[in-house]
Amino acid sequence: DLAQWSEAECSAATQHIARYKSLRHVITRGDLYRLAPPTHGSISGFIYVAKDKSEAVLFIHRGFRERVTDNESLLIDGLDPTSVYIVEGHDTAMSGRAWARIGYQPALKNLEGAMLHVRRQ
Fold first, then answer.
1. By the 8 A CB rule, do 120 and 80 touch?
2. pLDDT tens series, the chain, 121 aa
3. Torsion of CA 24, 30, 85, 95, to 10 degrees
4. In sequence order, what E strands does the chain have?
């Protein structure tokens, strides 16, 4: 019941809705790439890529593992291999080809997920 939410919960929901609305054009009109199913390993994800490949929205989730390894990568498909992209929260810009070969190493704990904006530079 939304009427029972605290002010902090309402504020958090407002922020989440605004974030979704800012990326909705990519999510609803982009091409979907399934990157890794939940049964593949502890990291699963999918990405929506804009038709012009200028941006994308990456959804990533870490399942439960007794021992979380930091070196697991999610290979990102669908980006223009010759363009350079930066993933939100990641300091290094790399080509679409590099993201597909090297991948993204998420800093997620067990059962955490993230929605990240990927932008062409």
1. yes
2. 888 999 999 999 999 999 999 999 999 999 999 999 987 778 899 999 999 999 999 999 988 777 665 568 899 999 999 999 999 988 899 999 999 999 998 888 888 999 999 999 9
3. 170
4. 31-36, 43-49, 55-62, 84-87, 94-95, 113-120
Percent helix, strand and coil across the chain, each rounded to 5? 25, 30, 45
Region for residue 75 given its phi and psi (left: phi exceeds 0; alpha: psi -120 to 50; beta: otherwise): beta
For residue 16 the two structure tokens come to 């989440």
* Residue 5 neighbours by CB under 8 Å, 6+ apart: 13
- Here the tokens at position 45 are 């994800």
Alpha carbon distance 111, 104 (integer Å): 17
Pair 59, 46: CB distance under 8 Å: yes
**Tokens 């091409």 sit at which residue?**
31
